[in-house]
Write a structure and sequence with these properties.
By secondary structure, the protein is mainly alpha-helical. The chain has three helices and no strands.
């Protein structure tokens, strides 16, 4: 998995991603929110984070959704601006 989810692009938080995070149990929600901040906002490597195996799977799902949502947004942005 890439250490950086996004590089020099807008960050699109879809309702689906927000819902996934909000529905997590408190411990996982706090850890995933911290991981999001550190990886996406602060560009830290994921290896610097201490995630349990379950949290790693959750982060992989959220990271994948972020990447898809951002690609979809950039594609739509390109279509409307041409």
């Amino acid at each position: 998995m890439e250490n950086k989810v996004l590089q020099q692009q807008p960050v699109i938080l879809s309702a689906n991603v927000i819902k996934m995070i909000r529905e997590l149990p408190e411990d996982e929600r706090q850890t995933i929110a911290r991981t999001f901040t550190n990886v996406v906002v602060l560009s830290q490597k994921l290896s610097e984070q201490s995630l349990t195996p379950l949290q790693s799977v959750i982060w992989a799902m959220i990271s994948s959704s972020l990447q898809c949502d951002n690609r979809r947004f950039m594609s739509r942005l390109g279509q409307c601006c041409c």
